[in-house]
Amino acid sequence: MWKMILSERRDFLLALLAGTISGLTAVALFAQSGFLISKAALLPPFYIILILTAFLKLFGVAKSVSKYAERYISHRVTFSLLEKMRLRFFQSLQPHAHSLLSSYRGGDLLTRMTKDVDTLQQFFLRVAYPPLVALLVFFGTMLVTIWFSVWITLLLFISMILCTVILPMLWQNRQQSTSQQQYTESLTEYFYGLTDLTVAGKRPATEQNLQKLSILFEEDLQNEEKIALRAQLVNQAIALLTAFTVVVLGAYFVVNGSLDGLYLAMLLLIALTVFEVAIPLGTVPMHKAKSAQAYERLVAFETAPLSVQPLQKGDFQTLQAMNISYRYPNSDFQALRNVSFTIKQGEKIAIVGPSGAGKSTLFQLLIHNLQPNAGEILWNGQSTAKIQHEELWQKLGIMLQHNHFFSGTIKDNLLSEQSNMRMQQLLNKLQLPFALEQEVLEQARNLSGGEQQRLALARILLRDVPVYLLDEPFAHLDANLTNLCTDLLLALPQTVICITHKLNELEHFDRIFVIYEHQLVEFGHYDDLIKKQGIFYKMRNLERPNAVE
Fold first, then answer.
1. Cα 310 to chain centroid, rounded
2. What are the counts of helices (DSSP H) followed by strands (DSSP E) for the chain?
3. What does the DSSP 8-state code read for residue 71?
4. Which end of the chain is more exposed for a tag (fewer CB within 10 A), N or C?
């Protein structure tokens, strides 16, 4: 954070200067008032009173102007720092956005993007800036008071150390609460799974657990407020005790002749005023700990930047996997092990295997959503690890298991610049009886699962790309529609890679890759795999028990 603050050092120094002037002029204003009261009691010439009153007004105006400048500049610095922090956070987030949900809960990410970023504004306003202002104000004040009394100056110094260093360390909560994070994560999951919880009859129990987390979160907030209030009350008490001690010591020094009684009221008001900048410092350790925790969570995504290479120009020729393996973060489970293959231009590839074998993980690696822990994926012989996602995705037609649909029309959701005639023809081929201007609700709630899948298929088929990758594109389709969509894909001149658990129509693919127990155990044409009587043969017979060998 200090590096970011120093990037705004001009405004930071201006805010520091304005804050120091504001504090010193406040002390001077009250010191002048005390001196004026004492001096007026001695009935000096009128011009003396007039001059002192003029200085009094001057200090008042200077205090108001400098206070306004301090607030304006300090908040401008704060907003600028927050802007940089948000930008830095999203820049570090963007390269990992595709895989973050496999490592972080949705509520955790939401907390980092909102609460943690907002917490950092406290670092400048309550941690970095006020102690420096207080130090400068106290130093300037003690340079003045030492001319009148060394002992009173020493008293002010001891009280300042007590208020700003010793006692705040006692109030510091060394164990940071995680109740807010737990509550946000659980609340996010509750809204995501509200329908399933209701159907399963678990909604009341979940809401009861949320209520407990909410109460715990509220108690933690109240405890923080109590600690902050206690710290400020104790500092206020020290300030009043210091002022009382100044009166006692001052009276003693006046009696023994070591202090002119004319300055006693001035020193008393100085002692009362100078602590105005010290009283809020009791909460510095608490805000520092919260800011440090928020900063650590925000920079958790930051990694050393990779050198980015442009995708080499030229027509697509091959897509290769070279001994790729993948293990999900914070897990010992190996989702994929030592997978190697080469897919050539125009080939039609089906990737099959039992549920949980690693097919979808392989799909995520091929579309560059995940990076292999070992091995590499090559596009025309070029490693994709250092290629920008967007640049590679321009060459791919990607159909996910769960596709997002926007609130709008069928045409809006096709995301295509093709002509209306071309779009309507494709919809008709997919047996979708939709007009382009037909309304689609958010998340396509007014479409069936099969209609959503065919609409997603139409979306990618309207793209002129060299490679199409599809993950379980026919899960919600009956046999006739599955055959229809498969025939459309196989008729394409481009490369098609299709992950599916349906084993019909596979004889028309050029090759079949069989993923079993997280490895590529077989590959070849349908007829060759049937003759081999290996894993694919057994899977086929399980699906069609009466199949003829």
1. 28
2. 22, 12
3. H
4. C
Length reported for the chain: 549
Q: Are 285 and 172 in contact (CB under 8 A)?
A: yes
Q: Average pLDDT in the 278-300 region?
A: 74
Of residues 71, 288, 108, the one with CA closest to residue 185: 108
Determine the average pLDDT of the residues in 307-329: 85
The token duo for 12 is 């930071």
What's phi and psi for 318, nearest 5 deg? -145, 150
Q: Which residues pair with 467 in a beta bridge?
A: 396, 495
Paired tokens of 140:
């300037």
Using one digit for the tens of pLDDT, what is the confidence trace for 238-263?
888 988 898 888 888 888 888 888 88
Worst-scoring range by mean pLDDT, 98-107, 112-121, 134-143? Answer: 98-107
Tell me which residue of 120, 233, 227 sits closest to 173, measured CA to CA: 227
Q: Of the candidates 36, 38, 39, 70, which has an alpha carbon nearest to the alpha carbon of residue 56?
A: 36
Dihedral, 145, 150, 153, 154 alpha carbons, nearest 10: 170
Query: Residue 136 pLDDT more than 70?
Result: yes
List Cβ neighbours of 345 (8 Å cut-off, separation of 6 or more).
Answer: 315, 316, 317, 318, 466, 495
Instruction: Compute CA 214 distance to the chain's CA centroid, rounded to the nearest angstrom.
Output: 22
> What are the tokens at 79?
């907003």
Q: Are 115 and 197 in contact (CB under 8 A)?
A: no
Q: List, in order, residues 6 or more apart from 120 with CB less than 8 Å away.
A: 1, 81, 82, 85, 291, 294, 295, 298
Q: What is the mean pLDDT of residues 425-446?
A: 89
Judged by DSSP in three states, 398 sits in strand
Largest pairwise CA distance in the chain: 124
Quick check: helix, strand or coil at residue 497?
Answer: strand
Mean pLDDT along residues 19-47: 83
- The predicted model gives 135-146 an average pLDDT of 88
Pairwise CA distance, residues 119 & 122, whole Å: 6
